[in-house]
């Protein structure tokens, strides 16, 4: 079948289903309407006390049944909700998905109030005997089962009938993109005809806020939450913690065409490069990010002048935005001044493990709808960052190809190249 192989002779990987949940709402329709209208999902935190915290705002998802039941429960519901929408759109509604599952999710931890509750649930004297009794209790064993790193993917595999051992991964802020990459490569290697890739994160907890605050990574613009995330602006002061999920049904183009599926886009290339400079900071010369972008372009078989739009990592931290501009200007040269480069995080915040998947979903929708979402809160441009950030208002444009960047803490850099249709 002509056109079903890429420039390296591998199966072309199509997207046949998309699902999204963010602080803007549930489903592609509501998210897209909010995103293109420039609406922010950032708001004051009400889920837990924020007294004495430096940051008291987030993009929490507060409208699901498990929103107040802990990170593990919420991450599962976010993943399940997005996956159900994607699989329904792709036409897999019988609970028997004939492909593997790749899940990007955060390491799940018990909330402190649950730990104290367990410790106080037994009558043993203080000390190791009490801890042993707690550890042997059935309640603790149940919590252990749900808090294991792979437990969410196991439940999703049972729910949707995916094949093989589900894979759970965590590559910091690049996790969602890495999950997509693993699905793409499984199809390219001929190991599967289709796969479902999910990024989900419901871990906006008090502990997370404290940890990121200690790294001076979070915005403290508490008085005006909707204006707090301002990527590429001169007065940016950190990212806004958020929650969300996205799922993509990936399928060989040949398989999708054979069953008459609607092609929503193509995953053309994936590139990754580690950065060992610092635990949280990027290498000042941007070389790992530059290498990841170049690797994605080479994998897609595209020149730098064949990319129409960049969905930026754009976290709103002083260092990341500067480094991303450096990497893009190095790869694209002077053209980067006129190429649209916008950041969804200006509206939905930073969804951590889910970010790469959510932004891939929005990139695919950008190409299908012919509309580029804006970077809102761009009221004070940084003269050192010369980018067309699609400031404050959406833009209608023909977009045939997108580069979506994910540059994570710990040096995890993953870039995806997507196309509107097979080349």
UniProtKB/TrEMBL annotation:
One of its GO terms (biological process) is fatty acid biosynthetic process. GO terms for cellular component: cytosol. Coiled coil: none annotated. One of its GO terms (molecular function) is 3-oxoacyl-[acyl-carrier-protein] synthase activity. Pfam families: ketoacyl-synt (PF00109), Ketoacyl-synt_C (PF02801). CDD domains: KAS_I_II. Keywords: Transferase. Residues 10-420 form the Ketosynthase family 3 (KS3) domain. Pathway: Lipid metabolism; fatty acid biosynthesis. The keyword Hydrolase does not apply. InterPro entries: Beta-ketoacyl_synthase, Ketoacyl_synth_AS, Ketoacyl_synth_C, Ketoacyl_synth_N, PKS_Beta-ketoAc_synthase_dom, Thiolase-like. PROSITE patterns: KS3_1, KS3_2. Belongs to the thiolase-like superfamily. Beta-ketoacyl-ACP synthases family. NCBIfam families: PRK06501.1. This is 3-oxoacyl-[acyl-carrier-protein] synthase II. It comes from Neomesorhizobium albiziae.
């Amino acid at each position: 079948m002509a056109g079903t192989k890429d420039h390296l002779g591998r199966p072309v990987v199509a997207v046949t289903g998309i699902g999204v949940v963010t602080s803007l709402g549930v489903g592609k329709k509501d998210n897209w309407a909010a995103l293109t209208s420039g609406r922010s999902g950032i708001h004051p935190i009400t889920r837990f006390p924020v007294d004495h915290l430096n940051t008291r705002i987030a993009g929490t998802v507060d409208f699901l049944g498990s929103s107040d039941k802990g990170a593990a429960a919420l991450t599962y519901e976010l993943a399940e909700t997005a996956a159900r929408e994607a699989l329904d759109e792709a036409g897999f509604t019988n609970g028997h998905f004939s492909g593997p599952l790749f899940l990007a999710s955060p390491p799940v931890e018990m909330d402190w109030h649950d730990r104290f509750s367990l410790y106080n649930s037994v009558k043993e004297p203080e000390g190791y005997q009490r801890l042993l009794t707690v550890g042997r209790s059935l309640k603790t064993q149940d919590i252990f089962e749900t808090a294991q790193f792979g437990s969410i993917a196991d439940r999703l595999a049972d729910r949707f009938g995916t094949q093989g051992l589900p894979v759970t991964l965590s590559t910091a802020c690049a996790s969602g993109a890495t999950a997509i990459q693993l699905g793409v490569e499984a199809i390219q290697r001929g190991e599967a005809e289709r796969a479902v890739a999910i990024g989900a994160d419901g871990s906006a907890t008090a502990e997370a806020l404290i940890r990121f605050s200690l790294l001076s990574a979070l915005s403290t613009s508490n008085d005006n939450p909707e204006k707090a995330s301002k990527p590429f602006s001169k007065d940016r002061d950190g990212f806004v913690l958020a929650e969300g999920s996205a799922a993509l049904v990936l399928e060989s183009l040949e398989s999708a065409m054979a069953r008459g599926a609607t092609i929503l886009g193509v995953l053309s290339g994936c590139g990754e490069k580690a950065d060992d400079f610092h635990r949280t900071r990027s290498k000042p010369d941007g070389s790992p990010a530059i290498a990841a972008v170049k690797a994605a372009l080479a994998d897609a078989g595209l020149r730098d002048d064949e990319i129409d739009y960049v969905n930026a990592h754009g976290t709103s931290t002083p260092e990341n935005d500067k480094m991303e501009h450096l990497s893009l200007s190095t790869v694209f040269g002077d053209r980067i001044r006129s190429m649209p480069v916008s950041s969804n995080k200006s509206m939905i915040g930073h969804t951590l493990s889910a970010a790469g998947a959510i932004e891939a979903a929005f990139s695919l929708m950008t190409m299908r709808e012919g509309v580029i979402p804006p970077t809102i809160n761009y009221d004070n441009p940084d003269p050192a960052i010369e980018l067309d950030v699609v400031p404050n208002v959406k833009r209608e444009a023909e977009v045939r190809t997108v580069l979506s960047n994910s540059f994570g803490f710990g040096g995890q850099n993953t870039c995806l190249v997507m196309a509107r249709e097979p080349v």
